[in-house]
Amino acid sequence: MTAQIELQNVDKHYGTFHALKNIDLAIDKGSFVALVGPSGCGKSTLLRSIAGLESISSGTLKIAGETMNGVPPRKRDVAMVFQSYALYPHMTVERNLSYSLRLKGMSRADAKKKAEEVAKTTGLSELLHRFPRQLSGGQRQRVAMGRAIIRNPKAFLFDEPLSNLDASLRVQMRKEIRSLHDRLGATSVYVTHDQIEAMTMADYVVVMRNGVIEQRGRPLELYDFPANKFVAGFIGSPAMNFIASSIDASGTRLIFDEYSGESIALEQRLEPNRKVIAGIRPEFLRVASEAEANFHIEVGTVESTGSATYISSQDQMVTVVQSERTELKPNDRVGLKVDSARIHLFDAKTEARIVTDAG
Ligand SMILES: Nc1ncnc2c1ncn2[C@@H]1O[C@H](COP(=O)(O)OP(=O)(O)OP(=O)(O)O)[C@@H](O)[C@H]1O
Q1: Domain ABC transporter, which positions (predicted)?
Q2: d(CA 190, CA 35)
Q3: Best residue for ligand 1 mutational test, from 11, 14, 158 (most atoms within 8 Å of Cβ)
């Protein structure tokens, strides 16, 4: 597989601020890659650097094998799609779509024909004569997509394109974007702070923090084998529970230090007395009888969405999510069980994953 976009040792400084730190990333032709991370981690800077809207301070950026450092945006042959749509308000949908072709000197008739083709692909055929103000948010987003598609670019670069839309439209549009990507055989880089969007749309997810790539992998790889506590807490919703813990003197039991020293047998022997952080996803904890419980919490809140019930501890450190409803109330003391194979262990100091035989 050839890399369509390649970044080698890329750094970006804004004055004294180091926004991208030694980024190495290869994006295969035809793949859909999501960049995620908390606000300010550098994902937009990375995307804008690929587009050429930001210059990189050092390193190499290649698109389709050609070095792009210093090449202006319009010569990079990539198309950006923004959340703000950036449509021309005084032009119809058809004109918005065909504008870039007209700029390149295509005849009015040919550009119109192209616009009609793209409108078909994006479900805009009935709306070609409308102005942007006469469209819904989702329809405007489709025009923005259509404008990118009509240019037949080497890659699509999306900067939080759905964040202006309401929840149900977002779900629909993310399916549409992914299916367009597949039909066009496109290469897409998609910035979002919404990890569900990243997990459901992308072939590969790149998790960033403070200008650094913390981990990249297939969505479920990140979920099953997070490289560190940060990634573990970022991927998955509700977020993973973290419990300060230690390995006992024999190296065979995990002691939940924060929960009265209650403990659970480990799958395999680990370094005795090591301080660790136990990571347990809310969906892998369950309310259990006294005989089965591994540790106990005092219930703080019980919330139900109908399909799921969230039970959180008073100290807010532990959340359980279950599909069954519950009679539990605040202040109840309840036992929780976890399958030890489902526990992620991180070093208490470095917060890196402690690799066991299971992964
Ligand atoms: N022109 C600029 N001058 C100085 N600092 C900047 C500039 N643009 C961005 N930064 C800083 O670089 C860091 C990364 O910004 P960036 O926009 O890439 O973050 P992000 O991950 O996309 O965040 P968000 O989700 O909030 O958009 C931030 O700390 C930001 O303040």
Answers
A1: 5-235
A2: 6
A3: 14
Torsion of CA 197, 301, 282, 335, to 10 degrees: -170
- Closest ligand 1 atom to Cα of 41: 21
Q: Which of 23, 35, 44, 212 to mutate to test the pocket of ligand 1 (most atoms within 8 A of CB)?
A: 44
Q: 193-220: per-residue pLDDT in tens?
A: 899 999 999 999 999 999 999 999 999 9
- Is 110 within the bounds of a domain? yes
pLDDT at 138: 84
The angle at the Cα of 78, spanning 77 to 81, to the nearest 5 degrees, equals 145
Q: Which two tokens stand for residue 175?
A: 């399916």
Count the domains in the chain.
2
Distance in Å from the first CA to the final CA of the chain: 27
pLDDT in tens, 83-118: 766 789 999 999 999 998 999 899 999 999 999 999
Sequence-distant (6+) residues with CB within 8 A of 93 are: 119, 124, 127, 128, 129, 130, 131, 132, 135, 143, 146
Identity of the amino acid at 236: G
| Domain range enclosing 128 | 3-227
How far apart are the C-alpha atoms of 175 and 172, rounded to whole Å?
Answer: 5
Mean pLDDT for the chain overall: 93
- Residue 42 CA: nearest ligand 1 atom is 18
Task: Examine residue 119 and state whether it is found in any structural domain, yes or no.
Answer: yes
Q: What interface predicted TM-score (ipTM) does this complex get?
A: 0.95
Residue bearing the CA closest to ligand 1, atom 4: 14
Question: Final residue of a domain: which of 176, 194, 227?
Answer: 227
For ligand 1, residues with CB inside 6 Å are 14, 17, 19, 37, 39-45, 193
The β-bridge relationship of strands 309-313 and 262-265 is unpaired
